[in-house]
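PT: before anyone asks, these are the final sequences, not the draft ones from last week. 625 residues across everything. Please model them as a single complex and drop the result in this thread when it's through.
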Amino acid sequence: MSDAIEAQNLEKTFGGTVRALDGVSFTVEEGTVFGLLGPNGAGKTTAVRILTTIVDPDAGAARVLGHDVVAEAGRVRSLIGLAGQYAAVDENLTGRENIFMVGRLNHLARDVSARRATELLERFGLTDAGDRTLKTYSGGMRRRLDLAAALVARPPVLFLDEPTTGLDLRSRNDLWEMIESLVDGGTTVLLTTQYLEEADRLARRIAVVDHGRVIAEGTPAQLKADLGATVLDVGLPDPASAASAAEILAQVGTKPPIIDGSSIELPVDDGPQSAMQALRMLDAHALAPTTFVLREPSLDDVFLALTGKRTDVEDEPDAPPPDSGRGRGRGRARSAAPTGGAR
Amino acid sequence: MTTTAQSAPGTAAVAAGGAPTHPDGGSRIGWAVADTFTVVRRNLIVYTRIPEFLFFSTVQPIMFVLLFRYVFGGAIHPPPGYPNYADYLMPGIFVQSVAFGSISTAVGLSEDLQKGLLERFRALPMARSAVLTGRTTADLVRNVFVVAVITAVGYAVGFRIGAGVAAFVAGIVMILLFAYAMSWGFAVIGLSAPNSETAQVMAFPILFPLVFASPAFVNVRSMPGWLQPFANHQPIGVVVNATRALTHGGPTAGPVLQALLWCGGLLVVFVPLAVRQYRRRA
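LR: through. Structure below.
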């Protein structure tokens, strides 16, 4: 009984045509964080909805702590917590009332629910805001409250569906620290994310999903080994000089550079050293870059390495609509990158 | 949460968290009632957080009272036995108020659905039924409040109980039962509509013919012959007639039996439909 979550060949089709999951299998060892990494529409949320008993799979099976998510759905529900991107909390209730309500619906006694609410508000830095309605909360505070409510019954297995999507950097860091402290406590966590950085920091193992399939699985180190540790983005004044710069810089990178219009993307091993070398070489050829950025590899780079193409951005067919007024951009990863061009 | 044995080490905290009971083997109905109560409480808190909603849900019926009592009333000829139009009008107002008020069941459920709240409820170990029973019961409580306000306003414009307090109270209980049945009907609409705005506009084409092609405000005999059977036998017409018999006097057994049959019929049809729709959408 060392696997807290087992998913076997899960399949799910929506509306007869949209194939959200196309045979997804993975297992999550008890007490660890497992990351499902993929773009919007990859099927991550569908997998979470099946594992949390919200929808039944069309085919395949899943178990949480040994209990089948379809046949023993009631049992599973008492063992799990769910929080995520669409912080499904009641904005007309206060933070305390929200946690209390979820406690009661988890069949905790009134006094236990009330005490847990106080504890959790404090733990998530919401004590001062606890008696205000959620309408007054920022996006980061809502996510924290959502997570607090998911923890009210101390579930041994926690599902976090894109817990930091759309959050600013500071809120994201806060939330990461809170998730890390949970795992120290022994909770098993299944995390979905679009951010390689997030999966890298939190998860012990990662499955990369695309179009309803797992296209790679391993530790963050194994996945990143395919990439080079760092990516160098160089912008040049025009496509012609980009082409010649790419030729010159090819020997600096761990993989051939990718030219996209007048910019180049180059996976490198030793960031600063490679950057200096690249600048020297460009200078020697009288090529002046307009931009020069050294960055961590993104999900897009992982996809590029794994599939040879960029992520297709599309909305997940089954995801509930986001609250109006709250953005759901795909975050910083590569949303600004021009697509098409010389691939 | 009786599974500490299988839980990860860190969840030994389960023990410290008090002894959460588990529905296994316990009384399912007991949990369903407790969960319904939790959801009712949540919905009522939300109502109090939006006082504008409560305020305007009584303003509209009050305006109907004033409109029909003082603007149209003079032109309306109630049947013999109603020298005072307010006595004829108020039963219609009660029924009209709760009928229009049941739209908020549709709007509330539709909003919960839109916000992903119903989906989140599905991942909790709560009774499935509690979302619907909690919503309809909270709306019943709101209707008690609305009916009390309308009764006071009715008194102010000249309405008097004609058939004894017990009969009047029976009439109010019947109206509340009807309101509860209507809430289930609108729960189906709320769970079928793509969003709450649509749920709201979907309600009007259903309610307008039922409310106005009825004896609620005017004597049915003033309507064309082909319309009269509809007006007298559709649910709102039947409930208005029964309420009038209970508040003003006259033979009660027949109209009240018909009204109760309609209420029962609506519940028998709409409760399963709402439950089915809830399972499909949430």
